[in-house]
Amino acid sequence: MENPISITKRAAKEIQEILTQKKVPEGYSLRVGVKGGGGCGGAQFTLGFDQTKEGDVEYTTNNIPVLIEKKQMLFLIDLEIDFEERREERGFVFNKLSGQ
Q: What percent of the chain has pLDDT over 90?
């Protein structure tokens, strides 16, 4: 199966730094999820570190182990995770590549 999401090199570098700085335990992966989506605000994408649970889809992209709940897969296909740093703010940015 092709990876449902992609992680840019900038985002992968930042995720690796977080893994090291926060001392995330061995065996944890990046969990990508979605919450909301019911109102005019739309869905919000979520990132965190977690262990594999039943019903997860696992894969690796840009040397980052990724977990996605199978039931959320439809909402995450063609998602690109990037990292931007500006004068006033810095953080992860989520781009839908298919224009959905």
A: 75
15: burial class by Cβ within 10 Å (0-12, 13-18, 19+)? buried
In this structure, the number of other CB atoms found within 10 A of the CB of residue 33 comes to 17
Q: What is the pLDDT of residue 76?
A: 92
CA distance 3 to 59: 7
- The pLDDT of residue 61 is above 60: yes
